[in-house]
From TrEMBL:
This is Glycosyltransferase family 8 protein. Pfam families: Glyco_transf_8. It comes from Thelephora terrestris. It comes from the Eukaryota. One of its GO terms (molecular function) is glycosyltransferase activity. Gene3D superfamilies: Spore Coat Polysaccharide Biosynthesis Protein SpsA, Chain A (3.90.550.10).
Amino acid sequence: MGPRKAYVTLLTKNSYLPAALVLNESLQRVGSKYPLVIMSTPSLPTEAKEALTRQRIETTTVNPLQPTPNTHALSDLDARFADTWTKLRCLRFDRGFGLVEFEVEPPLEFQHRRLISSQRIVLLDCDMIVMRNMDELFDTDLPDGWIAAAHVCACNPMKFAHYPADWIPENCAYTPLEHPTALTQPTQIQPDSPRAYGLLNSGMVVLQPSAEVMAGLTEFLSTSPLVSTFRFPDQDLLATFYEGRWKPLPWCYNALKTLRKLHEPLWRDEEIRCLHYILAVKPWQTKVVDEWEKGMHLWWWDRYRILEDRLSQEGDEETLRLSRENVAQ
């Protein structure tokens, strides 16, 4: 059997367990032929790990990835990003899934946990749902050492003061686009492009795992003075480390929910492959949202109800209980 492919996400706390379960459910419902592998840190409570096991979701334990202490600080508004550096542990999956992350070769008793290696990964955030099959991402044409992702939206509609000053609609890579060409011709990065054109959103990234790249990225994270300037941890790290080596993908593969309001000329509900619930308000945490986003949040709840029904039918009362404890009632 040759190298495998997989969707990968990170789970570090119980409060995101419903999101991870719904993400997995959504992948299955669109008929993806590739599994979701969940990276968990040692901090993830045992009850959540047991829930994933009961749901036959493959998991692998990784150590947290962080910059050198006292070299990076997050705005209080972005405290939710504290763990996101660890998403990039997936670059080690050239050695296989199911491997506990060790700084040295793992003890013999863990050797049997090595599974077949991966040649291609699609990294997803938990706060997403897959609405149409997007397995074609695994066949994205990428040169060695490259990644693929969709652009960041640099409009800053909420006027956050800690966001970059050049995050304005005129500099957003989505502003020039409209349907239907936006589905096949994402904005390209040119030497004279606005700086924001070179920034990606790390909610969905197509990666080629490599121990060598993982080592280089870890070294960069530990030593580069640029790290202190990063406002969005893993996102800025990827955009900087892969500068000139990332391929823009169409908006539909990482449909930032705000695009529906800010970039109506390109948006079509029926074209969404993967919807990303960016910003602090997540659909499972509250049922009270602004009118413009209410319909999109209901899409998440539709899938959650399907998940609940299935858990009930399977008799997995513990997973059902734990999920209900972590969603808005």
